[in-house]
Design goal:
mainly alpha
């Protein structure tokens, strides 16, 4: 399973790509020709999927314990 940190990193990358498209547009003219960025709708869908995975990870880890984990060593 992918870690929450990796999902957060991917979300930041997708946010940067969305921001880039919003700033420059999906079709950019360069000296060598035109470059088409990824579809804005696909990037937004990817971001929603990543957010759902993050929420699922937090939900599944929240059920592991209801309190503070304590290790007991010694005689009781």
């Amino acid at each position: 399973m992918i870690s929450i940190e990796e999902l957060e990193r991917r979300k930041i990358e997708v946010d940067a790509a969305i921001s880039n498209i919003m700033r420059t547009g999906q079709l950019v003219q360069t000296r060598n020709g035109r470059v088409e960025h990824a579809s804005l709708n696909e990037l937004r869908a990817e971001r929603a999927a990543i957010e759902q995975q993050i929420a699922d990870c937090y939900r599944s880890s929240a059920g592991d314990s209801w309190g503070t984990k304590v290790n007991f060593v010694g005689r009781g």
